[in-house]
Amino acid sequence: MTIKLGVPSKGRLMEKTFDWFGARDVGLSRSGSDREYAGSVEGIDGVELVLLSAGEIPRELAAGRIHLGVTGTDLVREKLGQWEQQVEELALLGFGQADLIIAVPSCWVDVDTLDDLDAAASAFRAQHGFRLRLATKYHRLVREFLRDNGVADYQLVDSQGATEGTVKNLTAEGVADITSTGDTLRANHLKILGDALVLQSQATLFRSRTASMNDAERATLKTLKTKLRLER
Ligand SMILES: Nc1ncnc2c1ncn2[C@@H]1O[C@H](COP(=O)(O)OP(=O)(O)OP(=O)(O)O)[C@@H](O)[C@H]1O
Ligand SMILES: O=P(O)(O)OC[C@H]1O[C@H](OP(=O)(O)OP(=O)(O)O)[C@H](O)[C@@H]1O
């Protein structure tokens, strides 16, 4: 008989999410020890806090196992096909801003745009006998973006973390990853292609379109939305 609210279990998104709800008189906190993934909610009855990996929240929303969830728009668009049919965006939270971009080595002086990348990819294949490799964890978004922009002669290699390091490690020629300050790209001698902004992401509160609710839970959701100033 509760509304389940999924929130990232650690790091920048968790703390800023707690602050965002706290500013609206809904107190979220992690209970128990630092390592225990249990949480509590104050200021409203009938809402349960579920601490999850940011990357798992899209799937939990789509499966209807949580009613509400906070995660990045990038993760929802990457992990859920036809995401709008599965979740509704209730509020952009104004933090966790990051751009999904494509970057190549800074020393590739002739490659500054997607057209340049396309030409470089063809030349790379002719020279090396295999396709230019882009390391990413955003397979769906990058594939769609490059298809729409006419870049074909490449392959994606999976990288679930420390993606910018793959170029130095010679497992990829370029990367498609999230950046905010640009420090990680610069430190790894990579430059962003001028016209390769795949997506602008920020932390967002989503509602599951598939989670079932009884009348009491529907009333709780309404009360919560009023507290959060989301009622239109
Ligand atoms: N440097 C950054 N600045 C701002 N937001 C970022 C940055 N890097 C990632 N993010 C955002 O934070 C969210 C969570 O990303 P992260 O990669 O930490 O999730 P995750 O892979 O689920 O983490 P984990 O599985 O380790 O809990 C994403 O929506 C992403 O866009
Ligand atoms: O532009 P910047 O401010 O330098 O931030 C970009 C970095 O932040 C994210 O990594 P994260 O810290 O989440 O670690 P990860 O490599 O394990 O994904 C992202 O994958 C970049 O590596």
TrEMBL record:
Question: Which enzyme class, named as a word?
Answer: transferase
GO biological process terms on file: L-histidine biosynthetic process
Every copy of the ATP phosphoribosyltransferase catalytic domain together lies at 54-228
Where does this protein act, in terms of pathway? Amino-acid biosynthesis; L-histidine biosynthesis; L-histidine from 5-phospho-alpha-D-ribose 1-diphosphate: step 1/9
Q: Which Pfam families match?
A: HisG
SUPFAM superfamilies tied to this protein: Periplasmic binding protein-like II (SSF53850)
Q: What is its EC number?
A: 2.4.2.17
Q: Which NCBIfam families match?
A: hisG
Question: What's the protein called, per UniProt?
Answer: ATP phosphoribosyltransferase
Organism for this UniProt entry:
Shimia thalassica
